[in-house]
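Pilot study result, target chain (336 residues):
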Amino acid sequence: MKSELQKKLQAAKDAGQLQGQLKIDESLSRYTTWRIGGQAECVYQPKNETDLQKVLKMLPEGTSIHWIGLGSNLLVRDGGVKGLIINTNSVLNDFDINCSEKEQKTQCIITAQAGVACAIFSRKAANNSINGAEFLSGIPGTIGGALAMNAGAFGGETWQHVVQVKVINQKGEIIKRTAQEFNIQYRHVELKKMNSANDNMNSKMAQEWFLSGTFCFAKDAQGLKQSKQEIKRLLARRAETQPTKQANAGSVFKNPDNDYAARLIECCGLKGLSINDAQISPKHANFIINNGNARAEDVEALIEKIKKTVFEQCRIVLDTEVKIIGEQSVNQECKS
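Predicted structure:
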């Protein structure tokens, strides 16, 4: 039997009010790079920003909303996800470059929508002789996700280059904000509390999402050759040090101050440990791989095992970088 949310969205889709793709009771395993996940109540892939506004405006109050781009940095529990999943993969992917001379230097402003893959952003910048975006080639996600968590790789971070962003809230309202309006930290982004009126806005940041980002980079005559060489070097390094050919979600834990999560995990003798088909990668200890039939509960059990062991042996609390959403399965609830 369909839920009220499913009935409402299906009726709007049938009436031609929505132009995107709607899927009901859709398995999310095909949407995540771990290839793991229970069913979503509703998955919607909007045609464009206007279509996205329409679907958000018609949602019942209190509807749970999650965004999925390429599905990295995400663990979907086996019991599935209630509410709406917004899928931006292959949509919301406008990309624009404008370059100008300033103080005898060429500055380039790049605007990219949330659905643009970070690797594509990096390659397009390089093809236009733009320097500084090479690090994005090492991030297996989209610009929307990179903005939300200040994603980084090889020493570079997303918000080092942000000038302005465009966000959308749960009411379908679109707002432009400057980079200065946010507190930016390692793998963490939040709106500044500038006044009492803004306090309420901060409490609702979980219900606002990045639609696009505007970035500033430099350009020089040797940029094309240098950028392409750097991207090639970084990708080779990534393939050499990370399990890129196996199903994973990227780094599982944030690096603690002045240390590395992978080093701590390996020092605790956990590298290569498995729970069913979920395994701490023998190649890089801060990655958990799916060897074929892993379930979310297996991955989550490994995450808890790592956190507990590292704390017991090193007295360091590891902070999970990967986002976990959804409901536990019935079997998992019985175990807990």
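One observation from the pilot: The radius of gyration is 21 Å. A full batch analysis is planned for the follow-on phase.
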